[in-house]
Hints:
Elements lengths: L2 E7 L3 E8 L4 E8 L5 H18 L7 E8 L2 E3 L4 E4 L10 H9 L4 E5 H13 L6 E7 L3 E7 L2 E2 L13 E3 L7 E3 H5 L1 H12 L6 H9 L3 H25 L3 E5 L1 H4 L3 H11 L13 E3 L6 H14 L6
Parallel strand pairs: 1-4, 4-7, 8-13, 13-14
Antiparallel strand pairs: 1-2, 2-3, 5-6, 8-9, 9-10, 11-12
Amino acid sequence: MKYAIGIDIGGTKIAAGIVNEKGDLIQSEMVESNPSDREKMFEQVINCVHQLLNHCSIPKQEIYGIGVGVPGKVDIENGIAVFQNNLPWTNFPLVERLREALGIDNIVIDNDVYMAAYAEWAEAKVKDDELFAYITISTGISSSFIKGGKFIRGAGFAGELGLIPTHAPGHDQPIERLEKFAAGPALQTKARKAFQDESILPKDIFAKYEDGNATARDLIDDMVTSFAHGIYMINSLLDPHKIVLGGSIATKNPVLLSIIKQKLENHLIEEQKHILNEIYISHLGSDQGMIGAGLRPFQLSKGDNLG
C-alpha cells in the first residue's frame, strides 16, 4: 500500500494527514495558521507536517508524495500560490519551498476547493460522461466541477460562486455578492445584530432555528433563498448530474439540505427537477480537503490529468 501526505491550508488552520491510495485517512494533525507574515505562515505548514511525521508509524521514506490545497488562485504547473484573500502568499513558490524543506520531490498543489472536490468525486464514483459539481459553504462560498476526470477551470479562476450577485432579502442592498450574504461570517454578523448578542455563532443560529425561534428562521430562510439562487444559476448553465455540498455550514447543519431543495424547486422547470434527487451533503466532513490533496499524487502517477 502506498501513502501520501495531504495538506489543507486555510486562513485559520492547517491540517495535514496520511492518506493511502484508496482514499483512507490514516492519521492527521492540525495547527493554527499564522497569516501575519508569509514566512511565519510557511513555517506553520512545515511544523504541521513534522508533527504528523513524528506521530505516525510510517517512515518519511515511504511517503509517495504530497498534495497541497491552497485558497485562491494557484499556478499548478509551476507550483505557485498566486493569489489569496486570507493568506500573505501572493506569487509564493510553495512547491519549491516545500521540496527544499521536506526533501520530497513529488508535490502537487491546487486550489483547496478543487482538492476537496476531487475527494468527493472519487468517493461518489461518478461516471466519466457525467458532470459532477461540488459547492462549499463555509467562511466563503465556492464551487468546482469535474467531468470525464477533468476539472473545468476556465482561465484559472472558475467556480467562484460566492462572487456572483444574487437576490439578498433583508439586506441593505437588494442585490449582493452571494458570499457577502450567505456565507458563515455574513450569517453570523446578521444574527449578532438581530439578537443583540456579540457571542452568537452559526451553530447557535441553527440551534435556535431547530427550536423554532422566529428570528433564526427568518435569517436562515433569507440565507437559503440567496444560496438557492446560486445553485439554480449553476444548474441552468451546466445541468450537473450530481451536486455535493461541503464546508462547515453544510456538513454541521444537515437540516439545510431539505430547505435548499424546497427553495430550489420553486425555480426549476420540469426538465431540471432531476437534480433534486442528486443533491447531497458530504459525509467526508472537514477531512475532504486532506483526503483530496492526499489522493492527487497517486492520480497524477497514473497519467491522469485533471486539467
